[in-house]
Amino acid sequence: MWFIGVDGTMRTYDVIYNVVRRIPYGQVATYGQIADLAGMYGKARLVGYALYRVVVDSDVPWHRVVNAQGRVSESPFRNGSDALQRVLLEAEGIQFRADGTLSLREYLWRPDVLENNP
DNA sequence: CCGTTGACGGCGA
DNA sequence: ATCGCCGCCAACG
């Protein structure tokens, strides 16, 4: 499998990426939520570190991860991927408020509810 | 083996 | 509400 290293070990960040891959189209998850689901409760920042390493054209839907305020985390180090993130989310039907936040109540992924269903 | 590097979140003033 | 502070850590050179 692509997420297992040649030595057979799955790296820490790969565990995080695998959770991110489960976020459904049109929904979002928070950094803290991903950490929790990855068995790294309280380590939201680690998720941020991991996503920083992801390349834009990755198979990991990195754009579906926002912060606990329902806002795209911006940083000059992201070199524009933060602006792209909003564009990609809007392309999935997610609407942003005037203050730059999105409705977590409406778009937050709830894994426990039912994975796939219309 | 270090030193550097960064997409968070919660809590207090 | 809106700041600042701080815990926390894998990957890379």
H-E string: HEHHEHH
Proportion of residues in β-strands:
under 5%
Average pLDDT for all residues: 91
The count of domains is 1
Low-confidence stretches: none
> Major sheet: order of its strands?
1-2
CATH class: Mainly Alpha
CATH topology value: Arc Repressor Mutant, subunit A
How many alpha or pi helices? 5
First-last Cα distance: 30 Å
Helicity range of the residues? Answer: 25-40%
Largest sheet: 2 strands, parallel
Number of strands: 2
Which second-level CATH architecture applies?
A: Orthogonal Bundle
CATH superfamily: Winged helix-like DNA-binding domain superfamily/Winged helix DNA-binding domain
Class by alpha and beta content:
mainly alpha
Shape: globular
Q: Main attributes?
A:
DNA-binding, globular, 35% helix, two-stranded parallel ribbon, 5 helices, Arc Repressor Mutant, subunit A, 3% strand
